[in-house]
Amino acid sequence: MSVMVGGYVSRRILSVLPVWLGLSLLAFSLSNLAPGDPAEVMLRQQTGEPPGAAEVALLRQEMGLDQPFPIRYGRWLADALRGDLGESYSTGNPVARTLIMNLPPTLELALSSLILAIILGVPLGVVGAARNGTVIDHSLRFVSLVGASIPAFVLGYLLILFLAVNLRLFPVSGSGGWMYLALPAMTLALAESAALARLTRSSMMAVLREDYVRTARAKGLRSASVLTRHALRNALNPVVTLLGLRFGRLLGGAVIVEIVFSRAGLGTVMIDAIRDRDYSMIQGFILFIGSVFVASNLIVDVVYSRLDPRVRLDSEKEYRSAPG
Amino acid sequence: MKVFIAVSLFTVAACGNDGNSGAMPAAAGSLVIGAGADEFGLKVNRERLGRYPLNAGICEPMLRLTPGFDLEPLLARAWEYRDDNTYRFSLLTTPRFHDGRPLDAASVKFTLDQGIRDRTQYSFLDDSSVRVVDDSTLDIRPAKPNLRLLDQMAHLSYGTIASGTKARDNPVCTGPFRFSEYVPRSHLSVERNNAYWGDKAKLSRLTFRFIPDDNTRALALKAGNVDLIFDVNRSIVANLKETAGITVVVSPPGAVVLMYIATRGTAPHTAMSDPLVRRAVAHALDRRSLVRDVMEGYATEIATVNPPSVLGDFAAMIKGIPYDPARARYLLDSAGWKSVGRGTRRRGGRNLTLTLISQPGAVDRSITQYVQAQLGEVGIETRIEDLDPAGYASRLNSGKFDIDIEVPNQNDANPAFLLALRWYSKSNVRSAPFMLAGQRFDSLVDRSLASIDRGEAQKAAAEAMRVLVDEEVAAIPLAGISRIYAMSSRVKGFVPHPSRLNQRWSGVWIDR
After folding, report:
1. For chain B, how are helix, strand and coil distributed in percent, rounded to 5?
2. CB contact under 8 A, B186 and A264
3. Cβ of residue A39 closer than 8 Å to a chain B Cβ
4. pLDDT > 70: what percent of chain B?
5. Which of A75, B3, B369, B405 has the fewest CB within 10 Å, making it most exposed?
6. Is A80's Cβ below 8 Å from some Cβ in B?
7. Is the link from the previous residue into A35 a cis peptide, with omega within 30 of 0?
């Protein structure tokens, strides 16, 4: 069995390589195709006024922007494979170091909101499925619909207003201990938990109609035991998939929450980089976040294959029957 | 968003004697300011930590800008213009740097040389421009003739740092506050310099917390997390004013909402090359209503392209073009742009459509929409394009626009600063060729730049501005901008400077 798992993982890793190369080309192309000259933007930032043509030309040369696209891409890719994503045009700091330094607060926010979302969303989904069609179910569906519909920045302000300004339970903004983390994590978690609750509910509903669940009930098992031991485990497969995708999204998509709460993190780094046409930072960020997405999908696939052996068996059959 | 309560959490701490006696001042305290985004993250700004674009009172230039945009001595005791494009500065001998060393000419040279390396100045200085004569005397000779050097030296980016120190990590200067801590994207803290050579600061500590979002800054003030906030959005001023314990303070105008016109735009952006159309646009805009209704009174009507006080009494020479839509329609008719009912005017099968570019972060969308509506009243269609900084620069530098609205700041005392930068044919700015204001304007700017006497320079700059605004209509000043601050009522002694960069913090304290 372990050989089969190893083979499955190896094939998945190999299939990821072209995706990663495509991602790198896309990252490099997108930021270079956008209008505007980073040298010009940098010089304007320095003085607050438009720079002269000669100064712009000199800086373009210094930044290597006068080189043809393929040469710049080739150099960048070779450096990226060594872990060197270049220097930020606007801050002068190494891109990789900036991303790594800003990863912990974003990771902290993403993980805590994901955990909070699981704590809230999964039980709510289970309760909704178990109480299908009742007032409780309708109420939970309504709450989750509202939760999923409110934009993060609106929810953020509302939480600040009630919990920070009126009740003074938390600070309005900034970074630091858990007190500073609470409101941003709640903001992100509420929307995520709504999505999780809806998915868990529908998945549970499907599982609860299965024969083995009916058999478990017929055997006289307690309802709670049927739900948690038999139904939930099988209903979690799509939820795990969603969690993997959501984690990548949370890492790259916490921008609004980071801005509303003035938190340091990858989101604000990215916003600044886009504003400043900081190509090296934008490319590094896209490659980094894209890699996180690819890696989290890979992990989800592996976890999924552990939860449901049919996945790797199907994959094994496809591999063996492939021509050549 | 109206359920706000405001009480400052920050308490008064220190104690002491009067600042003028040389001992610690009586009323101290720790002030937390909600500033905007952290701009020291940029490579070049990091070298100017605590000086530019946020002045934390750590460093001092040789001269400083008064609230009336006049010059007054600070670290320089005296100066004189010597022949051959050279200024000689004599420094005070009493100021000491935060590390105890006395102020010296070598440190001023060190500071200016750093600006030259970082390309952060507009004074035409090069490696050989600054020469130390003795410990307290230095000569500055720009590489090109520049008699406005004195006015420029008041800019905070010339705030003197001690020679041999690293300004990016720990700026060692002579100011009333000394550097304490900088955490990128979080805060910058300074503490009182108890050995300051002048009137000592009343606050024991000053912290600038970086809160980029306008609403979050206001909420932080209401929650008592900060004591004072910068750049209050007009839409929340009324709410803050209604809140007990919060005071709103407005500065005199220090910047201008300015309409730049593409007098020589790239085709098809050629409509504004016609002086009649430019004048018609100016007549079509009701600036009084803009200030009163759109900007809710937090602005002033203005005829100059920079704060009028920079020009002294000569500012009255510029009259501005009055609101007169009937005249605007007549001028457009005369230029051949005929109206078809209430629709857009046409000439030779072409609509009179103007492209207005701006950056949403720099200019309120309500202003650009107001301009669009007003021009629509006289039959001019306006397409607004909100652009990011790079896209904006690209359009500006290619002349692919008809109207550009910006908010230039005046942070030094040079009356010809903006004129020489944006509309002057000898400017090396890439957008200048698309906005030129003509030979007469150029010769007046030349005269201002070459005047040793400040009054003469102001007069020539005012004449150039009159040509620019009243005759050529190559620029239309829309409103003088006031900076809006909100603060806890316990904050005392805060007098807003029209130039944020020149804001002074020494006289501020927290009332116990």
Report:
1. 30, 20, 50
2. yes
3. no
4. 94
5. B3
6. no
7. no
Tokens in use for B462? 């005012």
* B392/chain A closest Cα distance in angstroms: 8
HEC profile of B439-481: HHHHHHHHHHHCCCCHHHHHHHHHHHHHHHHHHCCCEEEEEEE
- Which residues in chain B touch residue A280, judged by CB atoms under 8 angstroms apart? none
Give the minimum alpha-carbon distance from A229 to chain B in angstroms, rounded to a whole number.
46
Q: Hey, what's the torsion of the CAs at B123, B129, B130, B134, to 10 degrees?
A: -140
Q: What is the pTM of this model?
A: 0.82
CA distance B449 to B459: 11
d(CA A21, CA A43): 33
Taking CA atoms, B227 is separated from B188, B206, B354, B365, B506, in Å, by 15, 10, 44, 29, 16
Each residue of A15-36: pLDDT tens digit?
888 888 899 998 888 767 766 6
- What integer best gives the mean pLDDT of chain B? 89
Residues of A in contact with B186 (CB under 8 A): 174-175, 264
| Helix and strand element counts for chain A (H, E) | 15, 0
Q: Which amino acid is at B205?
A: R
Q: Do A36 and B388 lie within an 8 Å CB cutoff?
A: yes
Which of B211, B390, B427 lies closest to A38 in CB terms? B390
How far, CA to CA in Å, does B422 sit from each of A213, B260, B404, B416, B437? 77, 9, 12, 10, 9
* Interatomic CA distance for residues A210 and A225, integer angstroms: 16
The position carrying tokens 């912290």 is B207
Contact B415, B404 (CB under 8 A): no
Instruction: Identify the closest residue of chain B to A167 by CA–CA distance.
Output: B223
Picking from B44, B397, B428, the nearest residue to A54 by CB comes out as B428
CA–CA separation, B206 and B466 (whole Å): 43
Contact A277 B219 (CB under 8 A): no
Are residues A50 and B431, on separate chains, in Cβ contact within 8 Å? Answer: yes
- Side-by-side strand order, sheet with B187-192: B177-183, B187-192, B205-210, B30-35, B228-229, B484-488, B246-250
pLDDT(B393) > 90: no
pLDDT score of B5: 29
pLDDT at res. A279: 81
- Helix, strand, or coil (residue A276): coil
What CA–CA distance (Å, rounded) separates B306 from B464? 13
Is A90 an interface residue toward B (CB < 8 Å)? yes
Given CB atoms, is A40 within the 8 Å cutoff of chain B?
yes
